[in-house]
Amino acid sequence: MKWIVSSFIFIIIVISSFSSFSSEESSLYELENGYIVTDVSFDPNTGSFYLAGNLEGRNNSF
Q1: I want to staple 35 with a disulfide (CB 3.0 to 4.6 A). Which of 5, 31, 54, 59 is the partner?
Q2: What is the pLDDT of residue 22?
């Protein structure tokens, strides 16, 4: 049973990584206001999350 669950999780990760390669723009999450999150990182030293992305239709990034 453990092998089946591990295999299923591996397949999900592989499929999701291939779908980001095939997309025109690699985005993790798109918000309603036009913010597109492209990267999320966590700093264990400060306990903070950092987001990187851009505003749709503009040359601005955050």
Answers
A1: 31
A2: 45
Within 8 A by CB and 6+ apart from 58, the residues are none
Burial of 35 (0-12, 13-18, 19+ CB in 10 A): middle
User: At which residue do the structure tokens 């601005």 appear?
Assistant: 60
Whether this prediction's pTM lies above 0.90 is answered by no
Q: Output the CA torsion sign for 17, 19, 22, 25.
A: negative
Tens of pLDDT, residues 16-33:
655 544 445 555 555 556
